[in-house]
Amino acid sequence: MKAVVWHDVGKIAVEQVPDPRIQEPEDAVVRITASAICGTDLHFVRGTVPGMRPGTILGHEAVGVVEETGPNVRNFNPGDRVVVCSTIACGRCAYCRAGYYAQCDVANPNGPAAGTAFFGGPESTGPFDGLQSEYARIPYAHTGMVAIPPGVTDEQALTVCDIFPTGWFGAKLAEVGNGDVVAVLGAGPVGQLAALSARMQGAGRVLIVDGNADRLETARLQNAETIDFNVEDPVQTVKELTGGIGADRVIDAVGIDAESPKSGPAAEGTERSTKGGAWVPGDAPNQALRWAVEMVDKAGTIGIVGVYPPQHESFPLGAAMNRNLTIKAGNCNHRRYAPGLLSKIAASAADPSTVLTQQEDLPHVIDAYQAFDRREPGWTKVVLELG
Fold this sequence. Notes:
The chain is 25% helix and 24% strand. With 387 residues, it is of the alpha/beta class. The chain folds into 2 domains: 2-162 and 332-385, Quinone Oxidoreductase, Chain A, domain 1, CATH 3.90.180.10; 163-329, NAD(P)-binding Rossmann-like Domain (Rossmann fold, 3-Layer(aba) Sandwich). Strands 3, 5, 6, 9, 10, 19 and 20 form a 7-stranded mixed β-sheet that branches. The chain has a 6-stranded parallel β-sheet with strand order 13-12-11-14-17-18, sandwiched between helices. A 3-stranded antiparallel β-sheet has the order 2-1-4, with no helix packed on it. It is globular. The relative contact order is 0.16. Mean pLDDT is 91; it is low at 269-282.
């Protein structure tokens, strides 16, 4: 079969690789009908999240059709249409049973302390071959696959693998409630679906910050008020829009690959630098964190779902403590939210597919990666059509 394979920083290729097979009783093999390129994949290609093993298949978002199941997969049959959740979880340990699938004690072969296991990631996450391929082996398939309801398209279902649950989780971490003013940092796919999720969870007003005019334009589809950090200082603007108070809740949907403002009043002090292998304050990777702490109101809450690797060691803790802020962060427990979100889509209560802006086939995926990496207009979220 063909798959997108990581070889080194800046070096990926579409290659012929062996077909997956059932290895454990709880495995399934799925024929992938649609996959996607995520900003997290770009972290691995850029090297901002290290530790990738050469030869790993990329991708952690896919929908498809079950081809084969192991003897312990009792809830699916060949021919079933399924969403594959991005994070891998056993479904039976204490963490899974409490809904903390991203902290499964069993799935990560590096041990319980290693943290989240997911498809197409670094060695610390497994590694497990990813889902940008024609077929994929799904470990713990009885937990990691969710049936797609009738009437839900592949494109809609694809958002439930990762980006929609992550946006929903970000709003939950930020403790969004009725009438809240919510500021979302980042108008990429997760940021836009965090804005939608905040609305669905009761927010009275949603502000979204980015420096890409094209993404800000599509963010208006979520009825968000947009702030371009290349034109105005986002912290000052949020304060002005809220009568000097600040947002009640802030969601960081950016992470380590934050962009510095190219111009305007927010462009100072955002140089990228390192000290002892860790990012230091004043550089671009801390931009979203600093803005979050500065634009939330006193005693407010920040939810962080943008990706920061373990090597990232700096945070404006003093300012956060002085203002009595609550900070919550983590990898999304996708399996916890996927069934409910699929039901909402099936009931026409949400259509997250508005963030899907490009479709490509597997032979053209490298070009798609490059366009997505450059944040070219119209390349907010890329769907890979495989079947």
